[in-house]
Each structure stands twice: as structure tokens, then as C-alpha cells.
Amino acid sequence: MSTNNGGLSRRRGAGGGGGEDSTHTNSSRPSSTGGAPGGGGGGGGGGGNHGHRSSVDGGKVFADPRDLQIENENKTQPRLTLMEEVLLLGLKDKQIATMAGEARLGYLSFWNDNISYTLRGCILMELAFRKRIAMVKDPNRRKYALADRYIEVVNEKLTGEVLLDETLKMINSTQERMSVGQWIDLLSGETWNVMKVGFQLKQVRERLAKGLVDKGVLRTEKRNFLIFDMATHPVTDSAVKEEVVKRACTTLISRSNGSTPSLTDRESPMVFQQLRTVTMVCAAYAANVLENALMYLNHEMREVAYTKVDELLSDYSQYPFVSPASKNEVAGNDLQMEIIAAVLNVFTKMDSIL
């Protein structure tokens, strides 16, 4: 099938369809808009202002520099999101005998309700780390508790992660400003307001697991539990989970001076690498899955780890962070760091912590 020479042989998808980067999949898709035929002097439309044009075999190819910005940003982001790391720690990776004599592998505990609520908080922290949302810049906000301060979208650019983009669109499209605590409740479906039921994120665990399957970390299997057939997600790339477990254990049992490690690794391309690890450990603790990472430690070291995570959660659930190591080393927007502290502050009030 041939296309008009005046049509765009490469363009950005309109309107953020799904949030994924489409620079490769749409490279040969003909333009569906009524572009100017022939010479293409006006065929660029708005694209002439934003794109770079080059001649390939007599045709015209437009490359949007914003695509390059997305690619460059993706290179600086870690492979897994905070939500995926917490979910990965929650997955059982050892054979466990059941009443029916079966073995359950690659599943989340049926009785753990805390992880669902915690994952919604992790979504907000991940958006803050990616500089998409921040606290509303209002001098009077300090009169209110961290969890009661309003948040807003400061960068509408999609991330390519489905759950993050879905949440970003909801926050951006809402006329009413809401606080960190309110958003976590709404995303979790914990509201009596029938007008806001639509804010609930559905099937977050399963969607995160499928995302890890797409990234090659997990695989999907069907297993029979008593009278039910359920999809489980055993670990395929064990090195990824081992790295997450090792990072968590190193943070909690390191014998560094002070209660927390240094928060900025300036030689690393990963933004806020150590702060991300601190938040991941605290989220895993609130979600009741941290014990899966500490099961390889002896009893004494586990006690040290639990004492350390209590200190971390206390230090980073208020802003400015009270840790001496953090005062002069966190490079970033205070309004975004406030969201991190606010989410951790919400975690401190969960039943799993109390």
C-alpha cells in the first residue's frame, strides 16, 4: 500500500493514546488526517513548528524532537517502578504446601489487604520522582498536615507506564484540588462519595504483574487452588528480584553513621537512587511484604532490619527530612519531595505499622 508523498510517514500519535512511546510502531503508518496534497509546504501543519524534516528517497520524514526527549528520559529511569518492586517482594518464590497438597508459587497472599492500599501510594511517589506532580505552591500549605496538602500536575507528559499515565490523567482532569491522603483513598476505592467511585484504579496487582511479564521478569501460569483455577506469576528472571532483595537488605543492615544512608549518588544515572530505595523499603514494610526480603537473614539481623526501617519511616515521613545526611544532599524540587514525605506519612498510620 502506498501513501501520498505529502502525508507524514512518521508522526506522533494524537491525544496520548495509551501513553506508550509510538515512535517505532507508527513509523510506517500513513497519516489519517487530511494533509495538504502534493508539495507539502503546508503539509506540516503544526508539525512544521516542532519537527525536523529530512528527505528520504524523495519523500519527507518528520521527526519530533519530543520523541527524543522521551527516549532520553526513559534511559535515566530505573527498569522497574516502585510499585513493581514492592509487588515483586510480595510474590512467593518458594514452594509452599497447601491443604490440597498443591504447591503455590508466584502468588500474592490472599490475606494481605495492605499491599493494595500501599501500591496506590507508590504510584503517587513514582509520579513525584518522575517530576509529574508536586504540592500546590501555596505559602499557607504549611499550616496543614502533610497528608492534607493539595497536589497538582506540573508536567502532563506521559511516562509510558499504564498505571502512572492513567493516574496522571485523572489528577490533571479533576477540577477539584485534592490532597495526598484523599487521592490514595480514591485510587483505592475507599470513599463513600458515589460521584468519585470512578477514580478507583482497578486490578492494580494483576496489571503490575502483567507489566512484569512484559518486561521478562515474571511469567504467567495457571494453577489449581482447591476448586479454583488462578493465574500465578512465578519469577523468570531471578537476578532482578535478587537485586531488589539485596538492595533492601543492604539499606537496612548497613553499619553507616546516622540513621540513613546518603541520599544522592551523583555518579549514577538513576535519579534519587538511594531515596527510591528508602521509599521502596518503607512501602514494602507498610505492605507487609518486607519479611519476604528478610527471610534469608538470621533472627538477630532481622531485628536490626526492622529497627532500621522504623527509623527510616519516622525520618522520611516528615518534611524537611530530619536525617542529618539528607539536609544538604537531596537535589530536587521541595514540592515534589513533600509528596514523598506525605505518602510515607500516610503509611505510618496504617494498621500494619501501628
TrEMBL record:
Record keywords, A-Z? Golgi apparatus, Lipid-binding, Membrane
What GO biological process, any one, is recorded here? Golgi to plasma membrane protein transport
Bilayer topology: Peripheral membrane protein
Q: Which GO terms describe its molecular function?
A: phosphatidylinositol-4-phosphate binding
Q: Where is the composition biased (Polar residues)?
A: 24-33
- Offer a single GO CC term for the protein: Golgi cisterna
Q: Determine the domain of life of the protein's source.
A: Eukaryota
Query: Where is coiled-coil annotated?
Result: none
Subcellular locations according to the entry: Golgi apparatus membrane
Question: Where is composition skewed (Gly residues) in this entry?
Answer: 35-49
Membrane as UniProt keyword: yes
Q: Which Pfam families match?
A: GPP34
**According to the UniProt record, where is the region Disordered?**
1-64
Q: Which family does it belong to?
A: Belongs to the GOLPH3/VPS74 family.
Query: What is the protein name given in its UniProt record?
Result: Golgi phospho protein 3
